[in-house]
Amino acid sequence: MTTNGIGCPLCKGRMSLGRTDVTFRRGRSVVVVESIPALVCENCGEASIDTAASKAAYEIAEREIARGAALEFCTYAA
Length: 78
Ligand SMILES: [Zn+2]
What we know:
With 78 residues, the chain is α+β, with helices and mostly antiparallel strands. Helix content is 21%, strand content 41%. The protein is built from one helix and four strands.
């Protein structure tokens, strides 16, 4: 992951490495995957997650949803 030349899509602010949370909903299941590595805008807080990290987060959420979780908080582990 690199910050080279990447500006915030919303405000063009500087993006730096940070962490963010993503919420997945499927029917009545809600899964929050926390601490996903991301580029976070230093100005407005907009987060940009790369494809690999977002796919991994989605797989974590899918697993919890398949288990029948109603509301689950998971920590992303690379
Ligand atoms: Zn921004």
